[in-house]
Amino acid sequence: MSISVSTPPSVAFLNGQFSAENVIKKVTRSGDLRGVFHDGDSWQAISPETPIYEVEMLRSPQGEGELYAGVTHLQPGRVGDEFYMTRGHFHQRREQGEVYFGLKGAGLLLLQDEKGDARLERVSPGSVHIIPGFSAHRLINTGNEILSALAVWPSIAGHDYASLTQGFALRVVERGGKVQVREVQNG
Description:
Layout: E1 10-11, E2 18-19, E3 23-29, H1 40-45, E4 51-58, E5 67-74, E6 78-79, E7 82-83, E8 98-104, E9 107-113, E10 118-123, E11 128-131, E12 135-141, E13 147-154, E14 170-175, E15 178-183
Antiparallel strand pairs: 1-2, 3-4, 4-5, 5-13, 6-7, 8-11, 8-13, 9-10, 9-12, 14-15
């Protein structure tokens, strides 16, 4: 009997780069993030072509029991006083969770349930974040270098951005050289 041994894709934990042939890349630019940042005037002052984050994802089968793996690379920077962040989302299938692993940089993971209760977790190299079902989530880069995080999630989870039209309950800003968290009053 002949047993074959294959080499699976790998990720370089120092920079978050995949080594695989089946990587899908998507860049999200400032112009794609209308309404995400609180200061609309500062957002409009940035070129809409400014890259804010890139997601690299392994091409994977879709369906019940299948998983996606991807790395988000979030640039350092601010729009006004608010740190660069990902759009953030719930899963279309709310019960589906996700796992993030901090690879590089420093930042925060913002988690919010459907009632609007929010909390933050520090993201750093080696950190592990269990994102429970029914939780919206967003990465925020509070550092001076790219923030990279590896994510694993069910391929059936989907993304629901529309449920966050009012945004998240917390904003992370820089004031006087320090990271500060503000509660957002909607309505």
